[in-house]
Amino acid sequence: MLIKFLVSNFRSFRDEQCLNMVASGRIKSHTHHELPILEQDKSALKTAVIYGANAAGKSNLVVAMDLARDAVVYGSGPIKRISASQFAKGDQGPTQFQFLFQTEGYQFDFGFEIKNKKVLAEWLVLEASEHSKKEVKLFERTNNDVEIAKSSKLPDGKEISQLLETLNSLGVKSEQLFLHQVISSTSSEKRGATLNAAIDWFEFGLSVIMPQTSHVTLISLLDEDPEFRNWASSFFASTSTGIHAMKVEKTKIPSEDVPESLVEILQDGAQVGSAGMEFEMDDSDSQKVVRRNLKMLHPISHENEFEIPLREESDGTRRLLELLPALYQFDSDRNEYDGEFTFVIDELDRSMHPVLAHAFLRFFLETKHKKHHQLIVTTHETHLLDGDLLRRDEIWFTEKDKSQASKIYSLMDFKARNDLRLQRGYLHGRFGAIPFIGNMDKLRELLTDGTTEA
After folding, report:
1. Residue 243, domain extent
2. How many domains are there within the chain?
3. Sorting pLDDT into bands at 50, 70 and 90, what band is 437?
4. For the whole prediction, is pTM greater than 0.85?
């Protein structure tokens, strides 16, 4: 689970900004939203809901988490994209990301700094574990020099120290994170429990869903996991979408009947597709391509039904389908990954009815999970500003200042009565983070005359 995320000099974020998931001691309600933090008299929150005007920085915060995660998992490509996304041209210093997170009985502090496509600093600190209160700096990097903790201080002993020292002796690439080199150069069996816990959280535990998220891997999940398909069908049937089931039609096509450019992409192990359709190479026959089509089944009567391809369903239905894996995977019994999930969803309410968005969030908050899972969303949907649904420390805002730099702040920064209607207060501008609508007289002149004075 995420405890804090800090970012600076990235897109619209100039100065360091922090999304702090630590629960406020001033809030006495909704205690079931609190998740215990190791060795601290504090708790983290199950959710954060982030508001702001268009272009205020909400999506930039999500992109920052996504790219920072990708730099750990995928290497140099995300590093280049981060370098091209500084706050403004000129000498603004490095771009920095920092995650404080807890997973599988370990609490970590991981961060890095990037400038001109090079990693200037990187660190991984074990702040606490179920077995020890001692803080251990597993490694610290300055440019291409990496300092490894002594084996006597490492929880997994000499073996993990030797592994890190060996990787360090082979040379650290300036355009890659050292933690990525650990991932790409070693197997999980050789890393030890501590390193695996940190790496697994980035690879499997932290998941970002953007508005343009593809249905590609989702169709595979529906095809290969009947339990998820049945669960998703039941969810749709309970939301008055008119859908009572789904099915995946799978067809094998000779590769010569598929465009050569697509085959080349698929041969690299990629899955390609669009809404409701997916292509991948056939594992059992290298000369064939597998095409999957997702169909939504609508009942006509108790005995009859008709099929609609996903691409012909409403935007709201497709958006809801994108989000269902987040709810499904929170049950650890269904996953090989045994750690905590943190799902980050940009534009939760995109194409969704307000009642459905409210129900989605309520479903997560009211479901008892065996692990400490979290849901972080950005939204414009003011119906979620509901004191019965959310704690005040779970509500966040983004807003740009006069220099066009984004700021992140919490509802807890305001002194508001407990009986205040949050939705009305927000729409009236009490908390900021709403669009400014200027004088429209000039626009009216353009519409009526087609000209305007210089």
Report:
1. 216-322
2. 2
3. low
4. yes
